Amino acid sequence: xxxxxxxxxxxxxxxxxxxxxxxxxxxxxxxxxxxxxxxxxxxxxxxxxxxxxxxxxxxxxxxxxxxxxxxxxxxxxxxxxxxxxxxxxxxxxxxxxxxxxxxxxxxxxxxxxxxxxxxxxxxxxxxxxxxxxxxxxxxxxxxxxxxxxxxxxxxxxxxxxxxxxxxxxxxxxxxxxxxxxxxxxxxxxxxxxxxxxxxxxxxxxxxxxxxxxxxxxxxxxxxxxxxxxxxxxxxxxxxxxxxxxxxxxxxxxxxxxxxxxxxxxxxxxxxxxxxxxxxxxxxxxxxxxxxxxxxxxxxxxxxxxxxxxxxxxxxxxxxxxxxxxxxxxxxxxxxxxxxxxxxxxxxxxxxxxxxxxxxxxxxxxxxxxxxxxxxxxxxxxxxxxxxxxxxxxxxxxxxxxxxxxxx
Length: 407
Description:
Elements lengths: L10 E2 L22 E7 L3 H10 L6 E4 L8 H4 L3 E3 L6 H8 L1 H25 L6 E8 L6 H13 L5 E4 H8 L5 E10 L2 H14 L4 E2 L4 E7 L2 E6 L4 E9 L14 E10 L13 E5 L5 E5 L5 E8 L8 H19 L8 E10 L5 E4 L6 E5 L5 H17 L14
Parallel strand pairs: 2-3, 2-11, 3-8, 5-13, 11-18
Antiparallel strand pairs: 1-16, 4-7, 5-7, 6-7, 9-10, 10-11, 12-15, 12-16, 13-14, 14-15, 17-18
Helix pairs in contact: 1-7, 1-9, 3-4, 3-5, 4-9
């Protein structure tokens, strides 16, 4: 029997977060419910936020995963939580029209703020910190492009400050032609962030079952009969696939691809510029690098993406990509980056416009999915939770049409 989603090894080597406390969640081994209002498939950050959005609405909710919770892409995240998309606003204005592009960027900024409020309200211990962002000019977007980008963001009422080459050198000792400075960003330990939301879901009565493989869905009398690999049937009024980059085969298309990425973390208390503890940094290049610090003084740097769905599995590339990231970062900030304590690689999904696909799965009754997260996985997961939960609860989200499934 075939599975509904493409099963992949989502990461290689252990990320830093695997060795941190409070990142695991106790689960049930057997299905405790076979008739529910909402079945959430996937126990990563997307599923955790989806469950949180549906709590307190008198719904019978069940969450299942083919793995242990937080053992897929969520664990591999560098948790640079930004409202800025991979595709700049001034470019999206051309392809989507300014009205839609502005709403997408505004919704992304709102999602970061909403997530920060949720973490604060639930007192989730996950090293969540507000950050500024520094977006550096690069080979793909130079000073003129950044000038156009600032104007586009100002037109959308999004705060952004253009830094000249002289200002950038004076404040950050970085030699680039320009940069954009913004404030709506954050960082966190992604494993602790996810486990915090999952524990809240459990405390609210939502069971989480691991080692459940979904193999088929059939509509029966307006509801969904969901089959598992061990022959069980779950009846669910609504099914939500929060399976990240293991996307639904039924909606796979040419605009959704899997690529490979690499990351590393240094030892604690690594020498670094003082300003780095307040900033997330990335650049307008292809491939680009991105980096930040952690509360214990590590530097995390990632990037060097390749358009390949399996390059991340190559152990030789894990070493060579790590060396490239270290060299590029050393050249950029003027600090020698030491041998990393952690190296890891992962697969992630991308779409042509850098946008997620959120909503009803084509041709399926009351089946929803969120796919194609690109570099904004946590931010887009929050948006997906808001949009899909609204549909389930019977009130349409005004921005739902901005993130359609493409064909």
